[in-house]
Amino acid sequence: MLYWLLWNAHELWRPLNVFRYITFRGALAIVTALVFGILLGPWLIRMLREHQIGQSIREEGPASHQKKAGTPTMGGLLILAAIVVPVLLWGDLTEPLVWIVTLTTILFGGIGFLDDYLKVTHGKNLGLRVWQKLGLQVVLGAGAAVAIRLAAGHAPHAGVIAFPFLKNVNLDLGVFYVPFIAFVLVGASNAVNLTDGLDGLAVGSVMIASATYSILCYCAGHAKIARYLQIPLVTGSGEVAVFLAAMVGASLAFLWFNCHPAQVFMGDVGSLALGAAIGCSAAIAKQELVLIIVGGLFVVEALSVIVQVASFKTRGKRVFRMSPLHHHFELGGWAETQVVVRFWIVAIVFALAGLATLKLR
Questions:
Q1: pLDDT score recorded for residue 248
Q2: How many domains are there within the chain?
Q3: CA-CA distance, 340 to 335, in Å (whole number)?
Q4: Residue 151 lies in a domain
Q5: Minimal CA–CA distance to 188: which of 212, 206, 176, 163?
Q6: How far is the C-alpha of 282 from the C-alpha of 16, rounded, in Å?
Q7: Which of 121, 171, 199, 346 is the most exposed place for a label (fewest CB within 10 A)?
Q8: CA 51 to CA 61: how far, in whole Å?
Q9: Does 61 fall in a domain?
Q10: 71 in helix, strand or coil?
Q11: Are 193 and 268 in contact (CB under 8 A)?
């Protein structure tokens, strides 16, 4: 833990005092993740190619995507590595919340890794069965929820959810807190997974949401800011901002290789992990409901699938040309890069609306 070594040497050299600031370590985490990811990327892509770990494209998908078959997948391993290294270097590893969000991310990535591995070995776009994947996600989500609840101890915010736009309006969920947080994590994880269908779309949107929640976590962990904004004070959540800053840097690094035409796909090992990381961070910052706004793009993408399936099963008709929603616009004539950039713009608008909840109450 480089942070601990440098901070403990600040009495010998006063400039090292700067390492006490979360904002400074967050900036270091972004740079470290970006540089590490870009350096590691070419080697990882080469290894994936050599082991023939390529993406299988579903036949019912857009015809233009068939040419992407064989592109290396499981690139989410690059993202995970680029997150963990800066956290170990610049994070306060004595803070339990840092370990909770980091381990949750890695474990959800493990589910995705197993799913991707089965897809590759079977030679088709079929991995874990739906009930297997959801079952594992629910178990890990519940475990993370219990850990977050235990870390809160007897704090006023323990087991409570806050409502955006409303002052001091909180709801104590009691025994329903763990199932609710598990639902948040599973929902966020799968929503990001559904968004991962175009080059750069998911990782760019995750980067925007991560940057937003780094601000929310920092505010929740700062006594004066939390009191001024009238949001729950969560001791230690500021350190999660360093983790989220590393996510921003790791996303930038992955986007370097994932922009159109993609050299590598993140796979479920990346999308499930990143979604869970955002959901876990939202729970830690006591901004679970704000996730509906900040992650509005992911919510819309997931809803488009639910609506499409429900409509087809009940009426035999499709609402969209194809779901998730990004494929609808793609089949409507938008170029892939147009869909991605425009959806990024929408994600930014949702993120700004989420930040506005801090003041509009």
A1: 98
A2: 1
A3: 9
A4: yes
A5: 206
A6: 31
A7: 121
A8: 25
A9: no
A10: coil
A11: yes
In a domain, 135, yes or no: yes
Model confidence over 88-137: pLDDT tens digits?
999 999 999 999 999 999 999 999 999 988 888 876 667 788 889 999 99
How many H helices and E strands in the chain? 14, 2
Residue 239 amino acid letter: E
Strands 160-162 and 170-172: antiparallel
State whether the Cα torsion 318-323-329-335 is positive or negative.
Answer: negative
Tell me, yes or no, if the pTM score tops 0.90: yes
pLDDT of residue 273: 97
Per the structure block, which two tokens stand in for 233?
């004070």
Low-confidence residues in the chain, pLDDT < 50: none
pLDDT at 9: 58
- CA 308/CA 325 separation, integer angstroms: 10
The secondary structure of residue 72, as a DSSP letter, is B
Q: What is the pLDDT of residue 5?
A: 65
Task: Report which residue type is found at 207.
Answer: M
Q: Which domain holds residue 328?
A: 2-54+69-356
- 345-357 burial by CB neighbour count: b if 16+ within 10 A, else e? eebbebbebbbeb
Rounded distance, CA 70 to CA 229, Å? 50
Work out the burial of residue 311: count CB atoms within 10 Å of its CB; fewer than 13 is exposed, 13-18 middle, 19 or more buried: middle
Residue 62, domain member (yes or no): no
